[in-house]
Every structure is written in C-alpha cells, then in structure tokens.
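We modelled the chain as a single entity of 543 amino acids. Its sequence is:
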Amino acid sequence: MHSIEVVLVMLLAVVAGGYLTRVMPRWLPLPLPLVQIALGATIAGVFGRGVTLDPHLFFVLFLPPLLFLDGWRIPKSGLFRDRGLILQLALGLVVFTVIGAGLLIHWMIPVMPLAVAFALAAILSPTDPVAVSSIAARAPIPKRVMHILEGESLLNDASGLVCFRFAVAAALTGTFSLMSASLTFLWLALAGVAVGALLTIGVNRGHALVSRVFGEEAGTPILISLLTPFGAYLLAEQIGASGILAAVAAGVTMSYVELSGRALATTRVQRAAVWDTVQFSLNGIIFVLLGEQLPWIVERAVQSVREAGHVDPWWLAVFVFVIYGGLFALRFAWVWVSLRIGLYRSGRHDTRPRIRLVAAMSLAGVRGAITLAGVLTLPLLLDDGTPFPTRDLAIFLAAAVIILSLLLGSFVLPRLLRGLEVPEEDEDDRELDRARHEAAVAAVAAVERAQHALPAAQANPDLYASAAVRVMALYEERLRRDGALGVDAAELRRADEAERALRLAGVHAERERIYALARHREISDEVARKLVRDLDLMEARYR
C-alpha cells in the first residue's frame, strides 16, 4: 500500500508542477523540470525520507518508452541530413569529454581515483532528450539546431554508458583493454539497433496478419505500441546489447511502419492522446524522483568532503562549477570545430561558425535522468570488499551538474538566442503545400471512382452525383488556390489562417449548443458524445 501512495503523491506533484509553471510571474521563467525537482525535494523533506531509487528498475520503467517516443517523433529528414554532425557529437564528443573532464576531475579532487573520475565524466557526457525538450519549450531554439540536439541526445546515451561501464570495471579490477572496449561497443550498438528494428517490424506485421483474419479490439494496437519499447529493451539487454539503442531504433522503425497506414484514424487519435499522457507523466516523475534523492545525496556528499580533508562544504560548490565549466568548454570547442569542418565541406567562403550559435548549442547540452540513474549504479564495494572510493561525492557532483545545467539552460539560453538571426527554412511550407495539392488530386479521383463503383450509387445515382459534387467542390477549391498565379504564398497562408479561425468559431458554437441540448435532456448523452467527438476531430484538424 505504501508503494501505491508514493506513486499517487508523485503524480500529484507532477500535476502541481504543471500548474505552478503557469502561475509563476514572467520574470521568473522556471522550466517545468526544475519546479518538479523542487517539489520532489519538498516531499522528501516533509515526509523525512524520499523514495529508495533502484537504478536498474528506473532504467527499465522510465527510459524505454520515453526514448521510443523520441525516436518515433523526431523528424527523420533532419536526422539523416545532419547525420555527420550528430554522429560527431554522439560519439566523438563523448570520448573527448570522458578524457578531458576525467583528467580535470582527478586533478581537482586527487582523492578520487582516476578510473572513478573517468566514470563520473562518462556518465556526465550524455545529454538528455527529456531535459533538452523541456529547455526547448522555453527557449526559441532554431529548428535545425533542435533536430541536431535531439538526434545527439538519442544516440550519445549508448556511447556514454559504454565508457561508464568500462571505467567502473577499471576501478574494480585495475585493468582496461581498449580493444575489448571497442569490440564491446560495436556489439552493443549494432545488436541493439538490430533488435529494436526487427522486433518492431515483426510485432506489427504479426498484428496486421492476425487482425486481417480475426479482427481486433480497439485498444489492442495502442497496448502493443506501449509494450514494444519494453520488449525491445529487455530483449537487447538479455543478449548483452544496448537496450537504450534498441528502444530508440524501435521508435525510429515505428515511424516508418506507421507509413503503411494500416491503423484506423480513431486508433491514431487515441494512441497519440495515450502517448502524450505517458510522456508527460514519466517525464514529471523522473524529475520528482531526482528531487527526492537530493537531501540524502547532499548529506552524504558533505560527509565525503569532510573525510577527504576539506572541512568547508563550500568546496562542493567549487567542484560543481569547475566541472560544469570544463564540460562547457570541451563541448564548445568540439562544436566549434565540427561546425567549421561542416561549413568547409559545404563550400562556404566564410567557415567561421557564429560564436553565439556555438555557445547556444553548448548550453543546450543539458544533463538529466540518464546521468542520475547511471551514477546511482556505481557499486558499493570493490572486488576486495573495500568501499567504492568517493561514491557519494560522485553521485552528488552528477546531481548538482544536472541542476546547474538546467538552470543555466533555462535562464541564459533564451537571452543568448534573443536577436540571433538564423536563416528560416521554407522547406516545410513547400512540402506542406505539395502534399496538400497531391492529396486533393487523389481525393477528387477517388470520389469520382466511388460515385460509380459503390453499390448504393447504382441504385440511387442522382443522390450520389449530387453528393459527389458537394464533396469535390471542397477539393477543387483547394486545387484552384494552390494553382493561383500571381498570388503571394504568404497572403494565401494568411487567408487560410482567417478561414481556420472562423471554422473554429463555428465548431465551438456547435459544441456548446450540443452540450446545452444534452443538459436540458433534449438529446441523449450518447448522441451528444458522438457528435462532440466528430467536432473534436474536426477541431484537431484545424489546430
């Protein structure tokens, strides 16, 4: 019963955090993750203790669905277009950070062994897709930069965790093999991607086959989509591959499977609503859990600092700021060089990246749940039975860097991007116009065929001919507007916005009238629900 109460309290904290971020004044633009962390710390302080977090259970319950959803929804065109830069950040930057930050941490804190310093640097190297998305909600990050950051955060988890695993192994045994680490990384990456892709394809094809023969329940495809990331993660971990990459690959594959169009329209609408709820809930619980861990993390870190000879706990703040500064400097240098190489290869005359843009990409590399869960997996004892050196201090430094990166990203990044001129891409608008035009052409042809092919149309041709004229008029109006000559595209879009606003006003009026009829019992609630659902789908189309 205690576990149920804890889960309910955390969900209430997630809901309360959403309200608090909306009522806060504009001069205090705290992002939702920071508010949730503060609520988690408050819960731990009020009740005297927080939730005992099992890192392995945390990985299994929270990360697969969130990474799956990010892989599913991330724009694939941007991911493949900037794959070179994304791979440089996801692989090269991680190794660069492990070496540079590890040496810095060991130099600054000599009591922390070099292998432990490398382990801390490795778990600090991955950026977090959840935290990146939260920062993006408050900062006007250019679309292409956001795609690069999202792609990096999806892929650098595996490389960071592999480096972390080998650094911990070196701390336990005192040995390290570069060849073994390289081969292990290849197996983790390739096998993880293969498991995620093959499982998703197999499950969806099997479901489609069974559904064609026996039919399906309305909630079955939604439940299958919820179970797929867990299956991919657990199967990959069972064979020693990367469960994280398996979940990401499953999400990317799901986006292509979805293009088959087998799912019903109502299923897609319901599935999107379910996944939005899952994403909001899990994201919130992650940061509430981080806040609940803070009191005992700080307490044990202060004790570690005193045992190390630094009596003043303010040394902890010094360590945190120096480590974050080192991470920022390493990321800034790597991003600057990578962008300069990319500009040179593209044939640009000016190959110097904008300093503000590089600084923004560096600040946007915030840390989050994977860093916290990973550092908590540090073993308690060495192989000889002695306590793992500076474990509590490493956990505190990781948690503090997470919070500091969120704070700086939330407050500094919007000011850094303010007034930054980034060329706007109209590629999305062109693709949208082309897709609407070709869809309208296909719709007119389909209506013409159906007008004569439907069995009921042969029995009542005049009725169907009249209906076909009304339906095709909507599509032909769109085709006329798409083919209009001498008309500014921006003016057409403004006209579309005006029409959309008027249609929404009509939908709102319809809905209010239906509710009024139902309240006065002039229509049944069943009829009201059916009509309101149609209006809701229409409103979702115009949003």
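As a brief sanity check on the tokenised model: The radius of gyration is 27 Å. Residues 332 and 492 are 42 Å apart (CA to CA).
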